[in-house]
Design a protein that fits this description.
CATH superfamily of the largest domain: LarA, N-terminal domain
CATH architecture of the largest domain: 3-Layer(aba) Sandwich
CATH topology of the largest domain: Rossmann fold
Largest sheet: 6 strands, mixed
Number of helices: 13
CATH class of the largest domain: Alpha Beta
Helix content: 25-40%
Number of strands: 21
Strand content: 15-25%
Oligomer: single chain
Strand order of the largest sheet: 1-20-16-17-18-19
Number of domains: 2
């Protein structure tokens, strides 16, 4: 979509901030921001300028979709001998997966095969996250709460960790002892884009899911090329598995466990179950990633001068670390030197106490050198944000202090109207633009000519 300046009314679009219910008509779009929203009026003929996906929602009930996926795992379940103990690994509360639906169905299949409740343990793959509360356990396991043993992974307790081996790129793989000593391990979770591991799900349940803090950090450090000043590996990117060093480290670690099978879901932005993939831990995951990549990618003919991105509102814009996903994906639709307007309320600030401290390093070379000396996962996210702030002009509409936004290399704005006025200063007389209303869900992909 090409847009011409309008002499300072509301530069590229007519927009209005509101907190109530919007009276829609065909040219108005709502962009969520926290619990409220901005409305934006699109120019005529602008349908192709909106980047959003509408995945096909199946008619079958979620239980039927899960059951159909598990039907293909009969051979693997048949390998469980009488008395064998089974560990099911599942995600924590920060990643909704549909676990309260699929875990009871999975346990039912195990029961049918002669596996008693007492032989089953559910391990929550916390990675380096905090332990879960009792109410969070209830949400994760649903009707299994109080019936099946549930334990939280602890990445810092050496007594609960076991060294399995070393990956091809030299990472020592220490994982949860309960998982390592199980007769059979079943991995569960959900598949989605990941900005440097390519995709979530599958092998990620082991590393970083149930790995030691040291192993987690080492696997994420693989995002950087070997050697001082060598920069980020370009294959460690969203939607990329082949040649991705972070993905390969996770695969190497998972192979040491030899999971019995995996069960991964694919969810719509509103959490409806779209599909489930179960079976061999590599093949089923690859199939799920292929499906997700097709459903949640959006082909564009060219990159634009301006991209207006909403994270999708709360909780997707709860903090800047979460909002960075939308920034990362949206940048795929923006030409170098272009302008991004990012709507991210960030009511909880940065999402980590040390995140902002990384921006004492303004130059990328200095930033990278410090990251290599003292690697932190949040530092990696800060580094990635700084890269984009230098490559594009990013106008951030948020609650964050203006001076701190400037320190990070971005331009602060209080609302969409102000942000679009600022954007016009950096845009040519006629410019192209995209609007992305659910930035954390869709990946713009440049169409091959």
């Amino acid at each position: 979509m090409m847009i011409q300046r309008r002499g300072g009314i509301c530069p590229p679009f007519s927009c209005l901030y509101h907190t109530g219910v919007l009276g829609y008509h065909k040219r108005i779009m709502e962009l969520h921001y926290g619990d409220s929203s901005f409305s934006i009026e699109l120019p005529e003929g602008s349908g192709g300028s909106v980047i959003r996906v509408t995945p096909t929602v199946p008619e079958a009930a979620p239980e039927a979709i899960i059951a159909a996926a598990l039907d293909g795992c009969g051979e693997q379940i048949g390998r469980i001998a009488p008395g064998d103990n089974v560990v099911i690994v599942t995600s924590d509360i920060t990643r909704y997966t549909g676990s309260e639906i699929y875990l009871p169905l999975l346990v039912e299949r195990l029961n049918r095969a002669g596996v008693a409740d007492g032989q089953i343990t559910i391990v929550i793959a916390l990675g380096i996250h905090r332990k879960q509360t009792e109410s969070e356990h209830k949400k994760i396991v649903g009707p299994l709460h109080g019936r099946i043993r549930v334990v939280d992974h602890d990445c810092d307790d050496p007594g609960k960790l076991v060294l399995l081996g070393i990956t091809g790129n030299g990472i020592e793989v220490e994982i949860n002892r309960t998982v390592a000593e199980a007769d059979h391990v079943i991995l569960t979770g959900t598949i989605g884009f990941h900005y440097f591991a390519g995709f979530g799900g599958g092998r990620k349940s082991i590393l970083p899911g149930v790995a030691s803090r040291r192993s987690c950090m080492a696997s994420h450090f693989a995002v950087l090329n070997p050697g001082e000043g060598a920069g980020k590996n370009p294959r460690a990117a969203t939607g990329v598995l082949e040649g991705n060093p972070v993905h390969q480290a996770m695969v190497d670690a998972c192979a040491m466990v030899e999971p019995l099978f995996i069960l991964n879901t694919v969810l719509a932005p509103d959490k409806r179950l779209l599909a489930a993939f179960a079976g061999d831990w590599q093949q089923a995951h690859a199939a799920g990633c292929e499906y997700y990549g097709k459903e949640f990618s959006f082909a564009i003919g060219a990159k634009s001068d301006l991209v207006v991105v909403s994270c999708g509102g709360f909780p997707k814009d709860i903090n800047l670390i979460q909002a960075h996903k939308s920034m990362e994906y949206g940048s795929r639709a923006l030409r170098d030197g272009g302008v991004m307007v990012l709507l991210a309320e960030c009511r909880d600030g940065y999402g980590n106490a040390t995140f902002f401290n990384w921006f004492r390093h303004a130059a990328l070379e200095e930033f990278e050198a410090e990251l290599r000396k003292q690697y932190e996962i949040n530092g990696q996210t800060a580094y990635s944000l700084r890269q984009k702030a230098l490559r594009f002009r990013i106008i951030l509409v948020s609650r964050l202090p203006h001076e701190e936004v400037r320190t990070m290399g971005m331009i602060p704005a209080d609302d969409l109207y102000e942000a679009l006025e600022m954007a016009e200063e950096f845009l040519p007389e006629e410019y192209s633009a995209y609007i992305i209303p659910e930035g954390g869900t869709v990946l713009p992909v440049l169409r091959q000519s």
